[in-house]
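Slide 14.
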Amino acid sequence: MSVSVEWQDIKYKEIFEQEMTGLTRRRQSDSGCKIGDLEAILRNLYIMDGADIGGRGSLQDTIMTATIAAYEHFIAQWKAEGAD
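Slide 15: predicted structure.
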């Protein structure tokens, strides 16, 4: 693995895990949290990702990509459980 991209992989995994932990805690502690709420946040993340007019740079792109992936993964897992 190239050193120039290794930091991106490390940061991606770090952010993905942080987001998954946060989403899990939110689901457990907030009985009002529904899949639709998380899907709305995900839609906004897609908008923010697409609105990269000035350019965020590699670090912020990595963070955004990992955050979106975590939301997509968490929502898919929740739906697979047969929940709302």
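Speaker note: Residues 49 and 64 are 7 Å apart (CA to CA).
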